[in-house]
Amino acid sequence: MFGRFSAVVCRSHRRLFLLSSAGTWNSAWPKRGTKLTISFCLDGSHKHMLRDQDEPVGKVLARIVANMAKNQGKGKKKKKKKQEGSDAAQSAAEVSLLFGEDPVEESVLNAEAWKDGAVLCVGDVRYEVLRNAPTFTTAELPRSLMAGFPVCPRLQLEFGNMDDCEFTWLKETPGAGSGENWAEVGSGRVFVPSNEDIGSKLRLRCLPKEGTRCGLVKELESEGAIEAGPGTCTFDTRHLFTQQQAQWPELRVVSYNILADIYAQTELSKMVLYPYCAPYALELDYRINLIRKELCGYNADLLCLQEVDKGVFDESLSSAMDAFGFDGVFRIKEKQHEGLATFYRRSRFRLLSSHDLVLSEALGSDSLHSDLLQKLSSNSDLKEKVFQRSTSLQVSILQDLLQPDRSLCVANTHLYWHPTGGNVRLVQMGVALTHLGHVISAVSPGAALVFCGDFNSTPPSGVCELLTHSSLPQSHSDWLSSGPDHHCPMDLASPFPPLLSACGNPPYTNYVGGFKGCLDYIYIQPDHMEVAQVIPLPSHEEVTTYKALPSVSHPSDHIALVCDLLWRPPTDRPTQ
């Protein structure tokens, strides 16, 4: 009896082929978060099964049983359909996965069940499992290389384990003899060139592996030579405070608007907003070098980023942050090409669930916000202005792996930017807080809220008062921020007790030629966490070395907020 079985891992494009006992089955580990598409042919019938890698294998085997029974039952004559269908089901039910002739427990996840040495038995047919060779499907070096800044190749791997792969870095040595003009200078997934490497090209040899299994070497060569860096950067002194990772019960949090490339490259930015900034320092290839080094040097556990271009997330940040030990999620802003990114250290946190939303859409469709919507409807001009905004809220529930009974509700947002939009931001914050209160109570009771973002609001604003006082009166001046035509005064209440701005209210977190002010925040619940350390912001002299931000030594017009938070023991939490 001869059968054919194949499977594909979606999105990471990993392929598995299973032949009968006369052949082999090549399989691969699915990448985290991917699905497994199993396609097989038995007795001329083709089936396709899309399965999660973290699904128990017993469910896959049960589905194969059902498919076999259905397939065999179809071929029976009508008058014998009932009896022969029953026989077919009995025959098809003899499906099992063995390892060393012992059945694999049905509770074992797909990612662990389908491994070398396993055998799938479908009736009398035995399929030997053999994984495909590890392969890099994408391997690219950055176009811009600078001494002192980490070089993080963009890599996508099939069939293998990135932690098992071997990387060898070589630099060009022009004075060497023919065939010997490359010298080994490093190993590992990330390489930091030194000043001695300036003027040399880089070469990277990538050996894809999974355990002891190896694939074909992939060799990359840089387009250009390593260039000199800008010298001292605004974040270099800050890195002296973050040389070590935080130790439980502390965790380090970063919130940072990194300046989207789609905004940095506009004529408005070049000619009006940042005319003092050298044009090359606004180029993405240059800025991404600074961003990677800055983020890496904070040794954070949690990073909430705003104004992240989708292409930057996919092609630059994801690979770099993965190499630094982070997983991340991205939420694009509707109608834009940029959005929000939350990265968390894999060894510290596990993502349990995501609860993102577009604030205006939630306001119009979710009954949680019906009272706010009713009040807003009394002013059609303001209502229209609110509903024109595509502002998003990214919400991630994270479990602390070092203390699994602790969890975080991490919120990340970038509120409406216009200077006269204080009333719009109040409505947006009202929706956000109601949503966060509901998520915590319904999904993760007891989770500690960490609310990060560019709120485009200074400390005296209504947004900050709502967060720090849990309520806002209708008399607040922000309701008149865009004039009497948009005046819609209302009382707002937060479902949370007063929150604390973990980094306080620094003189500014945004410094451009025509404006400076505190717009960025990390808010926490003081009954769940306290502040252990605030990493000092760059000095005013550092910020203004090149007049303002961004500059050749700083990649954004905002400054990252960095702090160490400390879990409170449950017994130390103050009573409400």
Helix content: 10-25%
Counted by DSSP, the helix tally is 14
Query: How big a fraction of the residues is strand?
Result: 25-35%
**Cα-based radius of gyration, to the nearest Å:** 28 Å
Q: How many β-strand runs?
A: 34
Kindly, what is the distance between the CA atoms of the first and last residues, rounded to a whole number of angstroms?
Answer: 71 Å
Major beta-sheet overview: 7 strands, mixed
Q: Spans with pLDDT under 50 lasting ≥5 residues?
A: 1-33, 84-92
> What does the average pLDDT come to?
88
The SS-based structural class is alpha+beta
Tertiary shape: globular
Keywords for this entry:
14 helices, disordered N terminus, alpha+beta, six-stranded mixed β-sheet, 576 residues
Q: What would you note in describing this structure?
A:
This protein has 576 residues and is α+β, with helices and mostly antiparallel strands. The strands form nine sheets. Strands 22, 23, 24, 25, 26, 29 and 32 form a seven-stranded mixed β-sheet that branches. It has a six-stranded mixed β-sheet with strand order 20-21-19-18-34-33, with helices on one face. Helix 12 links the parallel strand 25 (407-414) and strand 26. Helix 1 (57-74) packs antiparallel against helix 2. The longest helix is centred in the last third of the chain and has 22 residues, at 422-443. It is globular and about 80 Å long.
